[in-house]
Amino acid sequence: MKNYSLFVFTSLFLAVSACSVNPVTGKKQLVFMSEEQEIALGKQADPSIVAMYGLYQDQQLQNFINEKGQQMAKISHRPHLNYEFKILDSPVVNAFALPGGYIYFTRGILAHFSNEAEFAGVLGHEIGHVTARHGAIQQTQQTLGQILLIGGLIVSPAFRQFANEGMQAMQLLFLKNSRDHESQSDELGVEYSTEIGYDARHMANFFQTLNNMRTGTESETLPTFLSTHPDPLNRFQRVGELAEQAQAQHPGMTFKVNRDSYLQMIDGIIYGEDPKQGYVENNTFYHPELKFYFPIPNAWRTVNTPQQVQMAPKDGKALMILTLTQANSLEEAAQTIVEKYSLTVVEQKKLSLNGMDAYAMVADQTNQQTNESIRLLTYLISYNGLIYTFHGVSLPTDFEKYLPSFNQTMRNFKVLRDASKINVKPERISIKRLSKSGTFQSALEDYRIPSDRHRELALINGLDLKDQVSAGQYIKIVVK
Ligand SMILES: [Zn+2]
Protein backbone atom coordinates (compact mmCIF):
# COMPACT_ATOMS: atom_id res chain seq x y z
CA MET A 1 0.00 0.00 0.00
CA LYS A 2 1.40 3.36 -0.96
CA ASN A 3 0.39 6.73 0.23
CA TYR A 4 -1.11 8.24 -2.86
CA SER A 5 -4.57 8.85 -4.08
CA LEU A 6 -6.65 6.35 -5.92
CA PHE A 7 -7.12 6.79 -9.59
CA VAL A 8 -9.99 6.25 -11.89
CA PHE A 9 -9.72 3.77 -14.65
CA THR A 10 -12.26 3.53 -17.38
CA SER A 11 -12.05 0.26 -19.15
CA LEU A 12 -12.11 0.21 -22.85
CA PHE A 13 -14.21 -2.40 -24.48
CA LEU A 14 -13.74 -2.18 -28.16
CA ALA A 15 -16.00 -3.87 -30.57
CA VAL A 16 -15.00 -2.37 -33.85
CA SER A 17 -13.67 -5.04 -36.11
CA ALA A 18 -11.41 -4.55 -39.04
CA CYS A 19 -9.46 -6.78 -41.31
CA SER A 20 -5.89 -5.65 -41.41
CA VAL A 21 -2.50 -6.86 -42.46
CA ASN A 22 -0.36 -8.20 -39.65
CA PRO A 23 2.97 -6.32 -39.67
CA VAL A 24 4.93 -9.44 -38.74
CA THR A 25 3.36 -12.17 -40.85
CA GLY A 26 2.21 -9.96 -43.70
CA LYS A 27 -1.04 -11.93 -43.65
CA LYS A 28 -4.49 -10.47 -43.50
CA GLN A 29 -6.23 -11.16 -40.25
CA LEU A 30 -9.23 -10.13 -38.26
CA VAL A 31 -8.13 -7.58 -35.71
CA PHE A 32 -10.78 -6.00 -33.61
CA MET A 33 -9.12 -2.69 -33.25
CA SER A 34 -7.34 -0.15 -35.35
CA GLU A 35 -3.81 0.98 -34.64
CA GLU A 36 -5.23 4.19 -33.16
CA GLN A 37 -7.40 2.14 -30.83
CA GLU A 38 -4.44 0.00 -29.82
CA ILE A 39 -2.44 3.08 -28.96
CA ALA A 40 -5.39 4.56 -27.08
CA LEU A 41 -5.82 1.35 -25.10
CA GLY A 42 -2.18 1.27 -24.05
CA LYS A 43 -2.16 4.95 -23.26
CA GLN A 44 -5.22 4.63 -21.10
CA ALA A 45 -4.10 1.53 -19.21
CA ASP A 46 -0.51 2.64 -18.63
CA PRO A 47 -1.28 5.06 -15.74
CA SER A 48 -3.18 2.33 -13.90
CA ILE A 49 -0.30 -0.11 -14.27
CA VAL A 50 2.11 2.53 -12.99
CA ALA A 51 -0.21 3.50 -10.11
CA MET A 52 -0.73 -0.10 -9.23
CA TYR A 53 2.95 -1.04 -8.89
CA GLY A 54 4.77 2.25 -8.75
CA LEU A 55 7.92 2.84 -10.79
CA TYR A 56 11.27 1.63 -9.53
CA GLN A 57 13.63 4.57 -9.26
CA ASP A 58 16.99 3.75 -10.82
CA GLN A 59 18.10 6.21 -13.48
CA GLN A 60 20.97 4.09 -14.78
CA LEU A 61 18.80 1.01 -15.29
CA GLN A 62 15.99 3.15 -16.73
CA ASN A 63 18.39 4.73 -19.24
CA PHE A 64 19.68 1.31 -20.17
CA ILE A 65 16.27 -0.23 -20.88
CA ASN A 66 15.22 2.89 -22.82
CA GLU A 67 18.32 2.84 -24.95
CA LYS A 68 18.09 -0.86 -25.77
CA GLY A 69 14.32 -0.68 -26.15
CA GLN A 70 14.43 2.20 -28.64
CA GLN A 71 17.29 0.58 -30.54
CA MET A 72 15.30 -2.62 -30.89
CA ALA A 73 12.04 -0.83 -31.70
CA LYS A 74 13.77 0.82 -34.69
CA ILE A 75 14.66 -2.52 -36.27
CA SER A 76 11.28 -4.11 -35.40
CA HIS A 77 8.29 -4.61 -37.70
CA ARG A 78 6.53 -1.54 -36.28
CA PRO A 79 9.24 1.10 -35.86
CA HIS A 80 6.80 4.00 -36.18
CA LEU A 81 5.05 3.33 -32.86
CA ASN A 82 5.88 5.40 -29.81
CA TYR A 83 7.44 2.85 -27.45
CA GLU A 84 7.80 3.39 -23.72
CA PHE A 85 9.86 1.17 -21.42
CA LYS A 86 9.27 1.17 -17.67
CA ILE A 87 10.57 -0.56 -14.54
CA LEU A 88 7.84 -1.52 -12.10
CA ASP A 89 8.53 -1.65 -8.38
CA SER A 90 7.54 -5.27 -7.92
CA PRO A 91 9.53 -8.29 -6.71
CA VAL A 92 7.57 -10.60 -9.00
CA VAL A 93 9.58 -11.95 -11.93
CA ASN A 94 7.67 -10.62 -14.90
CA ALA A 95 7.74 -8.62 -18.09
CA PHE A 96 4.77 -7.72 -20.24
CA ALA A 97 3.54 -5.46 -22.99
CA LEU A 98 0.41 -3.47 -23.64
CA PRO A 99 -0.95 -2.82 -27.11
CA GLY A 100 0.47 0.28 -28.72
CA GLY A 101 4.04 -0.08 -27.43
CA TYR A 102 4.10 0.02 -23.63
CA ILE A 103 6.66 -2.44 -22.26
CA TYR A 104 7.23 -3.20 -18.58
CA PHE A 105 9.95 -5.02 -16.65
CA THR A 106 9.64 -5.64 -12.93
CA ARG A 107 12.67 -5.01 -10.74
CA GLY A 108 12.24 -8.71 -9.88
CA ILE A 109 13.00 -9.85 -13.41
CA LEU A 110 15.89 -7.37 -13.73
CA ALA A 111 17.42 -8.85 -10.55
CA HIS A 112 17.12 -12.32 -12.06
CA PHE A 113 18.81 -11.60 -15.39
CA SER A 114 22.51 -12.41 -15.33
CA ASN A 115 23.57 -10.52 -18.43
CA GLU A 116 22.41 -8.08 -21.08
CA ALA A 117 21.74 -10.86 -23.59
CA GLU A 118 19.06 -12.43 -21.35
CA PHE A 119 17.45 -9.05 -20.95
CA ALA A 120 17.60 -8.40 -24.71
CA GLY A 121 15.87 -11.72 -25.45
CA VAL A 122 12.96 -10.93 -23.14
CA LEU A 123 12.84 -7.36 -24.45
CA GLY A 124 12.54 -8.75 -27.97
CA HIS A 125 9.83 -11.16 -26.86
CA GLU A 126 7.74 -8.32 -25.40
CA ILE A 127 8.29 -6.03 -28.37
CA GLY A 128 7.22 -9.03 -30.44
CA HIS A 129 3.83 -9.10 -28.69
CA VAL A 130 3.38 -5.48 -29.74
CA THR A 131 4.62 -5.78 -33.31
CA ALA A 132 2.59 -8.93 -34.00
CA ARG A 133 -0.46 -7.18 -32.47
CA HIS A 134 -1.18 -10.00 -30.02
CA GLY A 135 -2.85 -7.70 -27.51
CA ALA A 136 -5.13 -6.34 -30.17
CA ILE A 137 -6.15 -9.82 -31.23
CA GLN A 138 -6.63 -11.12 -27.71
CA GLN A 139 -8.49 -8.17 -26.34
CA THR A 140 -11.84 -9.15 -27.76
CA GLN A 141 -11.56 -12.82 -26.92
CA GLN A 142 -12.00 -12.52 -23.19
CA THR A 143 -14.30 -10.56 -20.99
CA LEU A 144 -14.04 -9.38 -17.46
CA GLY A 145 -16.58 -12.00 -16.43
CA GLN A 146 -14.14 -14.81 -17.00
CA ILE A 147 -11.53 -13.45 -14.68
CA LEU A 148 -11.65 -14.78 -11.18
CA LEU A 149 -8.31 -13.67 -9.90
CA ILE A 150 -7.97 -10.56 -7.85
CA GLY A 151 -4.30 -9.92 -7.64
CA GLY A 152 -2.78 -13.20 -6.53
CA LEU A 153 -5.87 -14.31 -4.62
CA ILE A 154 -8.59 -16.56 -5.85
CA VAL A 155 -11.91 -15.32 -4.53
CA SER A 156 -15.56 -15.72 -5.29
CA PRO A 157 -16.64 -13.83 -8.43
CA ALA A 158 -19.23 -12.07 -6.26
CA PHE A 159 -16.47 -10.07 -4.57
CA ARG A 160 -14.71 -9.02 -7.74
CA GLN A 161 -16.12 -5.50 -7.60
CA PHE A 162 -14.08 -4.80 -4.47
CA ALA A 163 -10.78 -5.26 -6.16
CA ASN A 164 -9.52 -1.92 -7.30
CA GLU A 165 -10.23 -0.84 -10.81
CA GLY A 166 -6.58 -0.89 -11.75
CA MET A 167 -6.37 -4.51 -10.80
CA GLN A 168 -9.27 -5.32 -13.06
CA ALA A 169 -7.65 -3.39 -15.85
CA MET A 170 -4.52 -5.40 -15.37
CA GLN A 171 -6.33 -8.67 -15.50
CA LEU A 172 -7.86 -7.57 -18.75
CA LEU A 173 -4.54 -6.65 -20.19
CA PHE A 174 -2.72 -9.68 -18.89
CA LEU A 175 -4.87 -11.81 -21.06
CA LYS A 176 -3.39 -15.16 -21.45
CA ASN A 177 -1.46 -15.11 -24.64
CA SER A 178 -2.02 -18.25 -26.60
CA ARG A 179 0.85 -20.64 -27.12
CA ASP A 180 0.96 -19.64 -30.75
CA HIS A 181 1.44 -16.04 -29.77
CA GLU A 182 4.13 -16.97 -27.28
CA SER A 183 5.99 -19.05 -29.84
CA GLN A 184 5.79 -16.23 -32.33
CA SER A 185 7.09 -13.75 -29.73
CA ASP A 186 9.95 -16.10 -28.89
CA GLU A 187 10.92 -16.14 -32.56
CA LEU A 188 10.74 -12.36 -32.70
CA GLY A 189 12.74 -12.11 -29.48
CA VAL A 190 15.51 -14.17 -31.08
CA GLU A 191 15.32 -12.20 -34.32
CA TYR A 192 15.33 -8.74 -32.72
CA SER A 193 17.97 -9.43 -30.09
CA THR A 194 20.26 -11.04 -32.69
CA GLU A 195 19.70 -8.05 -34.95
CA ILE A 196 20.96 -5.61 -32.31
CA GLY A 197 23.97 -7.82 -31.66
CA TYR A 198 23.12 -9.98 -28.64
CA ASP A 199 23.67 -13.69 -28.21
CA ALA A 200 20.11 -15.03 -28.22
CA ARG A 201 21.21 -18.39 -26.81
CA HIS A 202 21.16 -16.65 -23.44
CA MET A 203 17.46 -15.99 -23.83
CA ALA A 204 17.11 -19.76 -23.81
CA ASN A 205 19.20 -19.94 -20.63
CA PHE A 206 16.82 -17.57 -18.95
CA PHE A 207 13.90 -19.85 -19.74
CA GLN A 208 15.78 -22.57 -17.94
CA THR A 209 16.11 -20.27 -14.94
CA LEU A 210 12.34 -19.77 -15.09
CA ASN A 211 11.84 -23.49 -15.23
CA ASN A 212 14.01 -24.00 -12.16
CA MET A 213 12.01 -21.34 -10.40
CA ARG A 214 8.78 -23.13 -11.03
CA THR A 215 9.89 -26.21 -9.15
CA GLY A 216 11.48 -24.20 -6.39
CA THR A 217 10.30 -22.30 -3.37
CA GLU A 218 9.73 -19.14 -5.35
CA SER A 219 7.00 -20.67 -7.45
CA GLU A 220 4.20 -19.06 -5.47
CA THR A 221 5.39 -15.58 -6.25
CA LEU A 222 5.52 -16.19 -9.95
CA PRO A 223 2.08 -16.79 -11.24
CA THR A 224 1.82 -14.53 -14.23
CA PHE A 225 4.92 -15.06 -16.24
CA LEU A 226 4.67 -18.82 -16.06
CA SER A 227 0.94 -19.23 -16.35
CA THR A 228 0.80 -17.08 -19.45
CA HIS A 229 3.85 -18.62 -20.99
CA PRO A 230 4.44 -22.11 -22.31
CA ASP A 231 6.53 -24.73 -20.58
CA PRO A 232 9.96 -23.08 -20.18
CA LEU A 233 11.81 -26.33 -20.80
CA ASN A 234 10.39 -26.70 -24.30
CA ARG A 235 11.07 -23.06 -24.92
CA PHE A 236 14.64 -23.54 -23.78
CA GLN A 237 15.23 -26.08 -26.51
CA ARG A 238 13.34 -24.30 -29.23
CA VAL A 239 14.79 -20.86 -28.53
CA GLY A 240 18.27 -22.39 -28.40
CA GLU A 241 17.75 -23.84 -31.88
CA LEU A 242 16.30 -20.61 -33.23
CA ALA A 243 19.27 -18.68 -31.81
CA GLU A 244 21.75 -21.01 -33.54
CA GLN A 245 19.90 -20.56 -36.84
CA ALA A 246 19.75 -16.78 -36.47
CA GLN A 247 23.47 -16.60 -35.74
CA ALA A 248 24.26 -18.81 -38.70
CA GLN A 249 22.73 -16.12 -40.91
CA HIS A 250 25.33 -13.61 -39.70
CA PRO A 251 28.63 -15.45 -40.30
CA GLY A 252 31.69 -13.82 -38.77
CA MET A 253 29.64 -11.67 -36.40
CA THR A 254 30.30 -11.96 -32.68
CA PHE A 255 27.33 -11.65 -30.37
CA LYS A 256 27.40 -9.77 -27.08
CA VAL A 257 26.56 -11.26 -23.70
CA ASN A 258 27.80 -8.41 -21.45
CA ARG A 259 27.62 -10.18 -18.13
CA ASP A 260 29.92 -8.01 -16.01
CA SER A 261 28.48 -4.70 -17.17
CA TYR A 262 24.93 -5.92 -16.55
CA LEU A 263 25.78 -7.16 -13.06
CA GLN A 264 27.41 -3.81 -12.22
CA MET A 265 24.21 -2.11 -13.30
CA ILE A 266 21.99 -4.16 -10.97
CA ASP A 267 24.40 -3.94 -8.03
CA GLY A 268 22.24 -2.67 -5.16
CA ILE A 269 18.84 -3.34 -6.77
CA ILE A 270 16.13 -4.13 -4.19
CA TYR A 271 15.46 -7.85 -4.03
CA GLY A 272 12.20 -9.37 -2.81
CA GLU A 273 9.50 -7.41 -1.00
CA ASP A 274 10.27 -3.82 -0.11
CA PRO A 275 9.12 -3.54 3.51
CA LYS A 276 8.59 0.19 3.31
CA GLN A 277 5.44 -0.51 1.28
CA GLY A 278 4.14 -2.85 3.97
CA TYR A 279 5.09 -6.36 4.95
CA VAL A 280 3.75 -9.40 6.77
CA GLU A 281 5.56 -10.92 9.73
CA ASN A 282 4.11 -13.55 12.05
CA ASN A 283 0.54 -13.05 10.82
CA THR A 284 0.77 -9.30 11.31
CA PHE A 285 0.74 -6.69 8.57
CA TYR A 286 3.07 -3.75 9.23
CA HIS A 287 3.20 -0.51 7.29
CA PRO A 288 6.35 1.35 8.35
CA GLU A 289 5.68 4.48 6.26
CA LEU A 290 2.01 4.95 7.08
CA LYS A 291 2.74 3.63 10.59
CA PHE A 292 0.00 1.15 11.34
CA TYR A 293 -0.31 -2.57 11.90
CA PHE A 294 -3.07 -5.15 12.19
CA PRO A 295 -3.33 -8.94 12.58
CA ILE A 296 -4.12 -11.23 9.64
CA PRO A 297 -6.35 -14.28 10.22
CA ASN A 298 -4.50 -17.55 10.48
CA ALA A 299 -3.85 -19.31 7.16
CA TRP A 300 -5.26 -16.45 5.10
CA ARG A 301 -3.25 -15.28 2.13
CA THR A 302 -2.27 -11.65 1.74
CA VAL A 303 -1.60 -9.61 -1.37
CA ASN A 304 -0.19 -6.15 -0.88
CA THR A 305 -0.36 -3.67 -3.75
CA PRO A 306 0.26 0.07 -3.64
CA GLN A 307 -3.48 0.67 -3.37
CA GLN A 308 -4.89 -2.19 -1.37
CA VAL A 309 -4.03 -4.88 1.10
CA GLN A 310 -6.14 -7.91 0.26
CA MET A 311 -6.62 -10.99 2.38
CA ALA A 312 -8.56 -14.16 1.69
CA PRO A 313 -8.87 -17.65 3.13
CA LYS A 314 -7.70 -20.46 0.85
CA ASP A 315 -11.23 -21.44 -0.15
CA GLY A 316 -11.90 -17.89 -1.42
CA LYS A 317 -15.23 -17.66 0.41
CA ALA A 318 -14.39 -14.39 2.09
CA LEU A 319 -12.34 -11.33 1.22
CA MET A 320 -10.95 -8.55 3.36
CA ILE A 321 -9.42 -5.46 1.88
CA LEU A 322 -7.85 -2.37 3.35
CA THR A 323 -7.70 0.73 1.22
CA LEU A 324 -7.49 4.50 1.55
CA THR A 325 -10.63 6.52 0.98
CA GLN A 326 -10.76 10.04 -0.35
CA ALA A 327 -13.20 11.83 1.91
CA ASN A 328 -13.05 14.62 4.41
CA SER A 329 -15.01 12.90 7.15
CA LEU A 330 -16.06 9.45 8.28
CA GLU A 331 -19.70 10.28 7.50
CA GLU A 332 -18.84 11.41 3.99
CA ALA A 333 -16.73 8.27 3.43
CA ALA A 334 -19.57 6.03 4.63
CA GLN A 335 -22.06 7.80 2.40
CA THR A 336 -19.79 7.44 -0.63
CA ILE A 337 -19.37 3.72 -0.05
CA VAL A 338 -23.09 3.13 0.40
CA GLU A 339 -23.75 4.89 -2.91
CA LYS A 340 -20.85 3.38 -4.81
CA TYR A 341 -21.82 -0.21 -4.02
CA SER A 342 -25.60 0.35 -3.72
CA LEU A 343 -25.59 -0.96 -0.16
CA THR A 344 -28.50 -1.47 2.18
CA VAL A 345 -27.24 -0.63 5.65
CA VAL A 346 -28.21 -3.16 8.32
CA GLU A 347 -26.55 -1.39 11.23
CA GLN A 348 -24.00 1.35 11.78
CA LYS A 349 -22.27 3.12 14.64
CA LYS A 350 -19.53 5.58 15.47
CA LEU A 351 -16.89 4.39 17.86
CA SER A 352 -13.41 4.97 19.14
CA LEU A 353 -10.93 2.35 18.05
CA ASN A 354 -7.55 2.19 19.80
CA GLY A 355 -7.66 5.97 20.21
CA MET A 356 -8.85 6.67 16.65
CA ASP A 357 -12.27 7.82 15.47
CA ALA A 358 -14.01 5.09 13.55
CA TYR A 359 -17.28 4.16 11.91
CA ALA A 360 -18.52 0.58 11.67
CA MET A 361 -21.25 -0.68 9.40
CA VAL A 362 -22.87 -3.94 8.36
CA ALA A 363 -24.56 -3.79 4.99
CA ASP A 364 -25.97 -5.95 2.23
CA GLN A 365 -25.59 -5.68 -1.48
CA THR A 366 -28.07 -7.36 -3.78
CA ASN A 367 -27.37 -8.06 -7.40
CA GLN A 368 -30.39 -6.72 -9.29
CA GLN A 369 -30.18 -9.34 -12.01
CA THR A 370 -29.59 -12.49 -10.00
CA ASN A 371 -31.19 -11.34 -6.74
CA GLU A 372 -28.19 -12.80 -4.91
CA SER A 373 -26.75 -10.91 -1.95
CA ILE A 374 -23.41 -10.47 -0.29
CA ARG A 375 -22.87 -9.06 3.19
CA LEU A 376 -20.15 -6.64 4.24
CA LEU A 377 -18.61 -5.53 7.47
CA THR A 378 -16.99 -2.14 6.90
CA TYR A 379 -14.76 -0.21 9.27
CA LEU A 380 -13.74 3.34 8.48
CA ILE A 381 -10.83 4.55 10.57
CA SER A 382 -9.57 8.11 10.76
CA TYR A 383 -5.82 8.19 11.36
CA ASN A 384 -3.14 10.75 10.57
CA GLY A 385 -5.42 12.84 8.38
CA LEU A 386 -6.40 9.86 6.23
CA ILE A 387 -9.46 7.63 6.22
CA TYR A 388 -8.70 3.92 6.04
CA THR A 389 -11.42 1.58 4.87
CA PHE A 390 -11.65 -2.10 5.74
CA HIS A 391 -14.21 -4.25 3.98
CA GLY A 392 -14.91 -7.82 5.01
CA VAL A 393 -17.12 -9.55 2.44
CA SER A 394 -18.83 -12.94 2.26
CA LEU A 395 -22.10 -14.54 1.25
CA PRO A 396 -24.79 -13.88 3.92
CA THR A 397 -24.79 -17.58 4.86
CA ASP A 398 -21.04 -17.52 5.58
CA PHE A 399 -21.02 -14.16 7.31
CA GLU A 400 -21.34 -15.39 10.92
CA LYS A 401 -18.50 -17.78 10.31
CA TYR A 402 -16.13 -15.08 9.06
CA LEU A 403 -17.28 -12.23 11.32
CA PRO A 404 -14.87 -13.10 14.16
CA SER A 405 -11.94 -13.00 11.71
CA PHE A 406 -13.11 -9.69 10.25
CA ASN A 407 -13.49 -8.18 13.71
CA GLN A 408 -10.19 -9.53 14.96
CA THR A 409 -8.35 -7.86 12.07
CA MET A 410 -10.25 -4.56 11.85
CA ARG A 411 -10.55 -3.87 15.56
CA ASN A 412 -6.85 -4.38 16.04
CA PHE A 413 -5.75 -1.75 13.54
CA LYS A 414 -3.23 0.14 15.66
CA VAL A 415 -0.62 2.86 15.52
CA LEU A 416 2.85 1.47 14.78
CA ARG A 417 5.49 2.91 17.10
CA ASP A 418 7.92 -0.01 17.40
CA ALA A 419 11.15 1.27 15.82
CA SER A 420 12.33 -2.27 15.06
CA LYS A 421 9.25 -2.72 12.83
CA ILE A 422 9.55 0.76 11.31
CA ASN A 423 13.23 0.68 10.38
CA VAL A 424 13.16 -2.52 8.39
CA LYS A 425 15.46 -2.51 5.40
CA PRO A 426 14.86 -4.38 2.15
CA GLU A 427 17.31 -6.95 0.87
CA ARG A 428 19.45 -5.92 -2.08
CA ILE A 429 21.49 -7.67 -4.71
CA SER A 430 25.18 -7.15 -4.09
CA ILE A 431 27.71 -8.02 -6.79
CA LYS A 432 30.89 -9.67 -5.49
CA ARG A 433 34.11 -10.42 -7.30
CA LEU A 434 35.37 -13.86 -6.31
CA SER A 435 38.89 -14.03 -4.92
CA LYS A 436 39.29 -17.74 -5.50
CA SER A 437 38.04 -20.56 -7.67
CA GLY A 438 35.83 -23.42 -6.49
CA THR A 439 32.23 -24.54 -6.55
CA PHE A 440 29.49 -21.92 -6.44
CA GLN A 441 28.41 -23.44 -3.12
CA SER A 442 31.84 -22.91 -1.59
CA ALA A 443 31.76 -19.28 -2.78
CA LEU A 444 28.41 -18.80 -1.00
CA GLU A 445 29.88 -20.34 2.13
CA ASP A 446 32.79 -17.89 1.94
CA TYR A 447 30.27 -15.06 2.00
CA ARG A 448 28.51 -16.71 4.96
CA ILE A 449 25.23 -17.09 3.10
CA PRO A 450 22.98 -19.32 5.23
CA SER A 451 22.58 -22.73 3.63
CA ASP A 452 18.79 -22.47 3.44
CA ARG A 453 19.25 -19.74 0.84
CA HIS A 454 21.84 -21.46 -1.32
CA ARG A 455 19.32 -22.85 -3.75
CA GLU A 456 17.64 -19.48 -4.19
CA LEU A 457 20.99 -17.82 -4.86
CA ALA A 458 21.91 -20.50 -7.38
CA LEU A 459 18.67 -19.66 -9.12
CA ILE A 460 19.20 -15.92 -9.30
CA ASN A 461 22.74 -16.52 -10.58
CA GLY A 462 21.55 -18.99 -13.19
CA LEU A 463 24.00 -21.52 -11.74
CA ASP A 464 24.00 -24.92 -10.05
CA LEU A 465 25.49 -25.15 -6.57
CA LYS A 466 28.09 -27.59 -7.85
CA ASP A 467 29.05 -25.45 -10.87
CA GLN A 468 32.66 -24.27 -10.92
CA VAL A 469 33.25 -20.55 -10.54
CA SER A 470 36.60 -18.91 -10.94
CA ALA A 471 38.64 -16.17 -9.29
CA GLY A 472 37.78 -12.77 -10.75
CA GLN A 473 34.21 -13.82 -11.69
CA TYR A 474 31.29 -11.71 -10.49
CA ILE A 475 28.38 -13.31 -8.64
CA LYS A 476 25.18 -11.99 -7.08
CA ILE A 477 24.62 -12.34 -3.37
CA VAL A 478 21.80 -10.90 -1.25
CA VAL A 479 22.53 -8.44 1.55
CA LYS A 480 20.50 -6.26 3.92
ZN1 LIG B 1 4.83 -13.49 -23.78
Tell me what you see in this structure:
With 480 residues, the chain is of the alpha+beta class. It contains 16 helices and 23 strands. Residues 3-18, 139-152, 168-174 and 216-227 have low confidence and may be disordered. It starts with 17 loop residues before the first strand and ends with a strand. The structure holds zinc ion. Zinc ion (ZN) binds at residues 125, 129, 177, 182, 185, 229.
Largest sheet, spatial ordering of strands: 12-13-14-18-17-16-15
Radius of gyration: 24 Å
Number of strands: 23
- Structurally, how many domains make up the residues? 3
Determine the N-to-C terminus distance: 22 Å
Ligand types: zinc ion
Mean pLDDT: 84
Overall morphology: globular
Work out the helicity level. 25-40%
Q: What's the number of helices? A: 16
The low-pLDDT segments are: 3-18, 139-152, 168-174, 216-227
Structural class designation: alpha+beta
**Major pleated sheet:** 7 strands, antiparallel
Strand share of the residues?
15-25%
How are the secondary structure elements laid out?
Blueprint: E1 18-21, E2 28-31, H1 35-53, H2 59-75, E3 84-88, E4 95-98, E5 102-106, H3 107-112, H4 116-131, H5 134-138, E6 149-150, E7 153-154, H6 165-173, H7 179-195, H8 201-215, H9 223-227, H10 232-248, H11 259-266, E8 270-271, E9 279-281, E10 284-287, E11 292-295, E12 301-304, E13 308-312, E14 318-325, H12 330-340, E15 344-353, E16 356-366, E17 373-383, E18 386-394, H13 396-410, E19 414-415, H14 419-422, E20 427-433, E21 438-439, H15 440-446, H16 454-461, E22 468-469, E23 474-479
Parallel strand pairs: 3-5
Antiparallel strand pairs: 1-2, 4-5, 6-7, 8-20, 9-10, 10-11, 11-19, 12-13, 13-14, 14-18, 15-16, 16-17, 17-18, 20-23, 21-22
Helix pairs in contact: 1-6, 2-4, 4-7, 4-8, 7-10, 8-10
Bound molecules: zinc ion.
